[in-house]
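EI: anyone free to look at a 180-residue chain?
SC: sure, send it
EI:
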Amino acid sequence: MNNNARYHDLTIAMHWATAIAIFVAVGSVLLREVVEDDNWQSLLIGLHRSMGVSILFLAVVRLLTRLVTNSSGVNAGLSKSVRLVAKAGHSALYFFLLAVPFAGWLLTSAQGEPLTLFGVYDLPALVSKNRDLADQLGDLHETGGWVFIALIGLHISAALWHHFWRKDQVLRSMLLDSPQ
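SC: here you go
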């Protein structure tokens, strides 16, 4: 890897904004499972859904950003097999960044529930209310979410592997204060 290579500032900002949104989305839905107060449960599922829509939006913007920015130097010097694994991992992450929130939107629609973005803007239902479909989408959304969390764990492990074992600049290239 080129020691001065790094991702574009917009790419870095979008990466960390997405990470925060995922953390809040997962945290809010897990917290909802242990909170007994109906008002808090409603607030937490609303936050979870809003974060999901935000993640979907961020994923689309991130994909567009990848098309217009150059980060080719970031992986320079890595073996072909490492670059291939990284590309496969990133492709899987992007798939789940899009698929899990989209499945959540479909699920909310099939439940006949409104999808309100941060209590301000109502998003359209994507499907009509359908209990059987909602059950299937619930399973898909939950399973996809757990697979996504596992992939994120692998992603973090890979970043740490690069930093501590390979001692290259891959992790630093995704930090806003990394060298230019």
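EI: The CA atoms of residues 159 and 171 lie 5 Å apart.
SC: 👍
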